[in-house]
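Q: Is it fine to ask for two folds in a single conversation?
A: Yes, each is treated on its own. Send the first.
Q: Here.
A: Result:
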Amino acid sequence: MGKVKNDKNLKSGFFKKLSTQYRIVFIDDNSLEEVASYRLTMRKLYILLSTLFVMVSFITIALILYTPLKYYVPGYASGSNRSQIIKLKHTVDSLSDRVSAQEQYEQSIRDVLSGNIVDRDTAKLDLKKYNEERKNSLLKTEEIKRTAIKEVAKENKKKK
């Protein structure tokens, strides 16, 4: 029971301090004349400071959202800007590919003109193997030639 009384005393003491009135006086340093005087409680001062904080926050957010200041916020960009950036990136990539292909072409021409021709064919053609593959292929080239010659001859007869 003793703790309950202390808790009530603490709560009543805290609320008593909040409702205690204070006077804020502004005095001119040179003439010691009272310029302004205000009577406040801690509760009113808390409410005043909280309201000022909320108002400044709302004004700042409104300025950022409804003015061009929003473009200075990192990561904020409109959808059209993003699509333009993507298109530009693709354009730059394709241009860099073209430039590298052009440089390779120019280097090849320089090599040919200077006589630095390098045989780059690493798999030499083996005629025996080629002839065997040709004979064993599914498509018989001789038969294809014969049928093609016959069809061309038929077309030429029809035209005459």
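Q: Second one now.
A: Result:
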Amino acid sequence: MFTHFRFWFVGIFLLSRFCSAQMMDIDYAQGKREENSFRVHFLRYGVIGISSLQHLNLTSEVTKFRFDAKKGLHLSFSVFGTSTLWAGNKKDLLNSFDYMMNPTGGRANGTFFVSYPIANKDTQNSKIGLSLGTKWIQGPVQPEFKSSSFFDNFVRTGWIHEQLLAEDALQNTSLSFWGFPHLQLHQLTQDSVSRFFNDELETVSYGYGLEMGLDYNETLKLIFIGQQLLNTIPESDLKRFVARLTVAYRF
């Protein structure tokens, strides 16, 4: 069954190579709706990001399926593809680690996201959020013609706070802030841990993260993400805090 799942992801990757628009993995809908809605989005955002591990990335969203319930429940499934324009780090270990720690990273990335409101006011929302999925990552070249790709199964869950900072109804503009402190978990095979991470990770690695950003007029987003894994070996380079800055523009 898992083998068929991998072939499905390869198919997604081939499709994503023909797409150039990008979008974020979390959509922060505000308030309750008068009725349920289901939408399919294609190619709306252009996204570029840079990390403290010296990677400059472009991320493509192939498509997003989105359901919003009247009472505020949000469900979505998104397919991403990420290309690295520049890898300034000369350590293959850290390059593989950057691919894994990027929430929308991987040549193909299928992410399911759900959020449920726990408090709503006119200018702010609080929600519980959960995202989980799988990344197909093309890592550094391996010796003896071994496969250079691996899979990362991931989970992020935490509390989402959204705040409307400013709004001009006449000009139809707004500025919003969100924060998403969360716990995260990554699952790899033992072979992937040995070949790509020198056995410095566990097959199940856990840690924490913080995502926060500004959204101008639902057109321009500035996002900061910081993450750290906690159960690496103490002297490992993989225990470091990884920071990522991303800019997204809606076409």
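Q: Anything structural to flag on that second result?
A: Two points. The radius of gyration is 18 Å. Residues 2-16 form the longest helix (15 residues).
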